[in-house]
């Protein structure tokens, strides 16, 4: 098993998403994910790794937007939580999100690593660490999700 924040080879982002993600997740991307430029490198219940470009996701001073960090934390943790819930026929919906900003970033990408803190029958909690291209921690957060029954029509 990989260490939670062991870096991924950046060339993996050049592969088509069908080679980086399980088939069930191909259609899970939202309009917000697309607009922000999300790329997933790994997706399992134990670890989800994704990156976003800084460009286009900044606040007026040209810095990575704090709200973007919240989106990254929620998105990567939710993908991992859904990977876990699928094992039991459940889907995951976020109920609590926290984010802490440690340093600013102006260029390149922000890469997030979501790993579980708690995997229960009805609640799961994931921690997410965010890094810049120089592997400096720029933010961290946590998402708790409620596992719900899902039905496909």
Distance between the termini: 36 Å
Largest sheet, spatial ordering of strands: 1-2-4-5-6-3
CATH class value: Alpha Beta
Question: Radius of gyration in whole Å, from Cα?
Answer: 15 Å
Residue share in β-strands: 35-45%
Number of helices: 3
How confident overall, as mean pLDDT? Answer: 92
Describe the structure.
With 153 residues, the chain is an alpha+beta fold. It has a single domain (10-149), classed as Roll (Thiol Ester Dehydrase, Chain A), CATH 3.10.129. 20% of the residues lie in helices and 37% in strands. The chain has helices at residues 17-20, 31-36, 66-86; strands at residues 39-43, 48-53, 90-101, 109-119, 123-131, 137-149. The chain has a six-stranded antiparallel sheet with strand order 1-2-4-5-6-3, with helices on one face. β1 (39-43) and β2 (48-53) form a beta hairpin. The protein is globular and about 45 Å long.
